[in-house]
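About this split. The held-out portion is used to measure sequence recovery: a designer receives only the structure tokens and must propose an amino acid at every position. Recovery is the fraction of positions where the proposal matches the reference. Here is one held-out target exactly as it appears in the evaluation file.
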């Protein structure tokens, strides 16, 4: 039998349905929402879920770890996981006592052996003795691996440790098993007598996380379900929506005890984790890569400011169609789309806005609340063209004349992907003469044919200067972090352009823009386009006018 496919839907409250014919599960977390029911978020400061935030503490000395425990408390954590296996030297009685005496937050003691992905390589009896001692000394939690849980429970039978909750854990560093195997694993862990079940698996694809969510919402016991790796990031945030017992957040970025952990700060302030509830709507940016995007910062801050009950995530997606099929619940309401999925997105939508269809690329997908259908839009076009028109007019907001300053201009677009198509289509619609320069000449030729322009190989762009005062728009990722030294065209060619625009916005001033400014051109940053396209996305997501000043204020701080 094939592994069951998990499909989220909102047919019933907390229901699970197995449809054997499709070999799929339908699960729901929420009451059916009325159309456009983006309910307002609870008042700031209140807590809408019981999910705890645990900071893993790793260090070579007890002193260093105690400092980090205090930092975790100051940072807003609920508990800390003391990773005893990270200590260089460990005297169980002395050191456990020190941690417990110093306790400023509830303590979870983990002494992870190498055979389960940890750092401890010593005698197994000594390891289990230390965990038993932690219980005797009053640890709040201990973590014990499933493989030795029965043996451990046998050794403490008859003893009472009123305070300590035992987490029985299982880690899979290769993959996320099928839903049936996960269910069996939960049952095996429960059978040990665990107070809390912990399963950590690895995401090979973002859709693997759906299986963990399904187990989580139906668990009868306190359940920690985390999917490791960049593709599993949403498990760490949406645990709070789907009822996970705890999620991990690190003190510093990159200092992780398992792959893919976000920081405590991001959980609390970027994702607003305390405010996530079962009815929180999920938005996100779909891309590969996606980590460079500023959309999560912008949208989460806007949602928080206006009190919209939503969370906006980074969605590292390999297969767009599979992603949209898997997360098909009306909980997952809106997506921004970036490299390399904009053209595929067009094919994945049930309906596509006519402008997006003409452009041949979708950068915004909205799930229509009335029937769950996916509607595709292109907001890049208006965002970029308005930014360039404003640059030519020398201002930041809106237009006062009906004739575009682009009319009659020679407009060179570098790139023929999603953004390139939007720019080429938009410039043509505004009356410009359009030339496409692209690495793959054939793509340039096809786009030029579609919009009624000319094509050029990117390699020929340096020597292309039929006239002065041209407009140049880079829509490739050349110059984007981390390759900030790259540029798509030589500096000497820039003197023929009166305005240069770069869609890349990390960094804000790319090498191309710096050299264009030095050559005397007006420059327009990708951040202006970013905000313009985000206004459109926001309006599609919410049906409300975008609070433009708020958007600008948020982005000014980044
Ligand atoms: P896409 O659909 O994948 O298109 C990529 C384009 O860049 C293709 O024409 C490709 O040429 C070209 N390209 C990629 N790497 C190249 C390289 N090393 N050398 C030369 N050409 C290269 O991507 P997209 O969605 O259009 O996005 C492109 C860029 O625009 C990204 O950096 C994205 O972040 C940015 N963007 C910014 C905004 C904003 O709001 N500021 C909005 C949208 C996009 P081939 O045809 O030869 O493959």
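Reference sequence for scoring:
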């Amino acid at each position: 039998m094939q592994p069951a496919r998990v499909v989220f839907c909102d047919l019933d409250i907390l229901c699970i349905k197995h449809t054997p014919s499709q070999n799929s599960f339908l699960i729901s977390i929420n009451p059916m929402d009325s159309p456009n029911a983006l309910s307002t978020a609870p008042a700031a400061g209140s807590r809408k879920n019981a999910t705890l935030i645990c900071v893993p503490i790793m260090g070579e000395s007890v002193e260093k770890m105690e400092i980090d425990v205090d930092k975790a408390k100051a940072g807003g954590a609920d508990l800390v996981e003391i990773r005893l296996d990270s200590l260089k030297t460990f005297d169980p009685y002395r050191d456990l006592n020190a941690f417990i005496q110093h306790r400023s937050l509830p303590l979870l003691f983990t002494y992870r052996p190498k055979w389960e992905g940890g750092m401890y390589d010593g005698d197994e009896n000594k390891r289990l003795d230390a965990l038993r001692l932690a219980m005797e000394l009053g640890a709040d939690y201990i973590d014990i691996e499933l493989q030795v849980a029965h043996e451990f429970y046998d050794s403490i039978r008859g003893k009472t440790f009123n305070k300590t909750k035992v987490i029985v854990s299982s880690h899979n560093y290769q993959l996320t098993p099928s839903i049936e195997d996960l269910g069996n694993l939960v049952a095996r862990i429960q059978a040990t007598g665990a107070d809390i079940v912990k399963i950590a698996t690895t995401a090979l694809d973002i859709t693997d996380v759906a299986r963990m969510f399904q187990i989580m919402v139906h668990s009868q016991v306190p359940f920690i379900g985390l999917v490791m790796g960049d593709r599993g990031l949403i498990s760490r945030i949406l645990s709070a929506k789907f009822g996970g017992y705890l999620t991990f957040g690190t003190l510093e970025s990159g200092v992780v005890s398992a792959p893919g952990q976000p920081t405590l700060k991001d959980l609390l302030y970027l994702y607003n984790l305390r405010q996530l509830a079962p009815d929180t709507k999920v938005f996100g940016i779909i891309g590969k890569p996606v980590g460079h995007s500023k959309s999560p910062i912008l949208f989460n801050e806007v949602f928080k400011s206006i009190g919209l009950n939503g969370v906006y995530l980074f969605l590292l997606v390999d297969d767009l169609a599979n992603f949209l099929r898997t997360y098909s619940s009306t909980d997952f309401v809106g997506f921004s789309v970036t490299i390399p999925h904009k053209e595929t997105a067009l094919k994945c939508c049930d309906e596509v806005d006519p402008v997006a269809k003409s452009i041949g690329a979708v950068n915004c997908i909205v799930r229509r609340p009335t029937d769950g259908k996916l509607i595709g839009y292109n907001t890049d076009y208006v965002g970029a063209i308005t930014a360039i028109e404003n640059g030519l007019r020398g201002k930041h907001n809106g237009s006062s004349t009906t004739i575009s300053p682009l009319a009659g201009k020679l407009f060179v677009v570098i790139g023929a992907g999603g953004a390139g198509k939007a720019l080429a289509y938009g410039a043509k619609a505004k009356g410009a003469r359009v030339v496409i320069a692209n690495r793959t000449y054939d793509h340039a030729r096809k786009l030029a044919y579609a919009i009624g322009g000319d094509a050029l190989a990117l390699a020929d762009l340096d020597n292309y200067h039929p006239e002065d005062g041209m407009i140049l728009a880079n829509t490739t990722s050349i110059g984007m972090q981390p390759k900030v030294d790259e540029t798509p065209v030589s500096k000497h060619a820039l003197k023929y352009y009166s305005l240069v625009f770069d869609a890349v916005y990390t960094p804000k001033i790319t090498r191309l823009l710096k050299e264009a400014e030095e050559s005397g051109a007006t420059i327009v940053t990708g951040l202006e386009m970013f905000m313009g396209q985000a206004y459109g996305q926001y309006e599609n997501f919410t049906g409300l006018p975008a609070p433009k000043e708020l958007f600008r204020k948020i982005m000014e701080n980044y």
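Annotator remark: The two ends are 50 Å apart (CA to CA).
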